[in-house]
Design a protein that fits this description.
By secondary structure, the protein is of the alpha/beta class. It has 14 helices and 19 strands. Among the domains are: 227-330, Flavocytochrome C3, Chain A, domain 1, CATH 3.90.700; 410-509, Methane Monooxygenase Hydroxylase, Chain G, domain 1 (Up-down Bundle).
Length: 511
Amino acid sequence: MSASVIIVGGGLAGLFTALKLAPRPVTILAAAPLGAGASSAWAQGGIAAAMAEGDTAEQHTADTIAAGGGLVDETIVLGMAQEAGDRVRDLLSYGVPFDRDLEGRLIQSREAAHSTHRIVRVRGDRAGAAIMAALIEAVRATPSITVHEHIHGESLIMKEDRVCGVVARDQEHRRLEYHASDVVLATGGIGHLYAVTTNPVESSGIGLAMAAKAGAVIADAEFVQFHPTAIAIGRDPAPLATEALRGEGAILINKAGTRFMTALHKDAELAPRDLVARGVFSEIIAGRGAFLDCREAIGARFAEMFPTVYATCQSAGIDPATTPIPVAPAEHYHMGGVLTDAEGRTSLAGLWAVGEVASTGVHGANRLASNSLLEAVVFGARVAKALPATLEPVAPPMTHVDDTHAQIDEDQLGILRETMTDHVGVIRNKIGLETALWTLADLAAHAETAPLKSMAEAALFIAVAAHQRQESRGGHYREDFSKSDPKRATRSHLTFAEMQSYTQSIIGAHR
C-alpha cells in the first residue's frame, strides 16, 4: 500500500503527528490495537508545561538542563518549553480532560527535579490513558488518516539513499511493503530489551534497529533511565508507582523502616531519578529491601488520588493506604535514539523520528520527569509542519508476499533480557559490559527471526555506547568510573558499521 506519509507506531507521538498532518493523507502502522501497545497510555505523571502564574519557559529549561547531566541542548529545550502551552491547548481541543480547579484553571502538580508545580495531569495518575483515549477518538474521526493495526515494522525500503517505505509483517507473518514519500518512526523505546521494565512488549528497540541498519546515526544510546519505584510484585511489565506519589510526600524506606534517601541527596525522594534508582537498587542488593511509604503523606486519600496505583496494589493484596509498597528499579525510558534535528529529521533523507525512538537533545543524560509526553507532542507538531504542505498519495497497491517465519525463541529472548538487566542496567562495569557484548553479538549472529535479530542489534548499541563512555553521567553509571569526566561532556554518536566494528574489536581482544 502507498501513502504520502507512513507513520510507524501508534502511540502518542505517532497519533499526534498524524492529526497535525491532517488533511494531508497519512497511514499509521501500529503493532497492536491503538493504545494497547503504547507506553504513552501507561504514563501516570502527565505533561510538563510552564503555564502556572510565576513559572516560565526559562525556568523549565533550567530544570531540564540541571537534570540532563551536561548534555542537554539548551536551544532545543527552550524551544520545546516555549511551545508547551500551545501543545497542551491542542490536547484540550482534542478532548483531553486535564484536571482543573473550581475556577476552571489547570491544576499543576510537582515532580522530581522540577523547581515548581508544572505538571498537568488527569485524575492524578491517568494522564497517559486519558490522552491516548482522546487522540484515538480524534484519529478514528479523521478521514485523511488510515490505520493498519497488528502490523510490525521490520526494515526500511531505500531508493537512491532515500527512505521510501517500510517492510512489515502482519499477524500471519506475511511480508508487506508499504511505499511512501516519507516515513516517520514513532516506535517508542527499548524497554522490552530488559527483564524488568515498565514498558509494553512493543517497546523492543526495533525502530532504532530499523533506522540504524538503513544508515541513520544513533545518539546517546548508553543513557537509559530506570524508574526507581516500579511495584515489585513479579509482573512483566512491572506496574509503576508514579513519581507523583513522592511529589505528594511519600517516602522511601527499607525493611527496618529507615528512610535512606535523605543521606544520599539534599532533595531525598525528589532527587533526579538516576540517583533515586541507585539508592533503591543499593538497598535491595544489600538485602534490606525498598518500600514506598505513602501512609502519612496520602493515607486514606490514596484510592481517590491515585486510582491506577491503588487498583494495582489491591490486586496484589496490598493496601497502600496502610502498608508500604515494595518497589524496585525498572527500565523506564531511553534518552538515546535516532539522532534528529530540531524538526525531527534524521540523518537519512525521507526518514523522520519522533517520541522516545528519537534523540533530539532534549533529555541529555537523564530525562526530567514528564518531559517525554511533552517532547512527543512538540516534535510531532514540528514534523508535521516541516513535511510538505501538499501531499498526494503515491500509487502501487500493497504487495503481499507469503513468507512466514517462526515466532521469537522465548529462551533466546530471555537470555537477551536478563543480559541487559544484569550487565547493562542500573550499575555497570567493564567486565559486565564485555560479557553483554559477547552474548548479544552471538544472539544477533544466530537469531532465527528478524525481530530477535533487531532486538539484539538495538541492545548492542546500548552496550557499546556504555562500554565506550568511561565515566558516570546521568542515567549511565559505571562503578569502575564512578565520577563524571568534564572532557566527556559530549553526546555520543554511533552508526551501525561503527557499532559492529567496535563489538568485534572487543570480542577479538579476548580471544
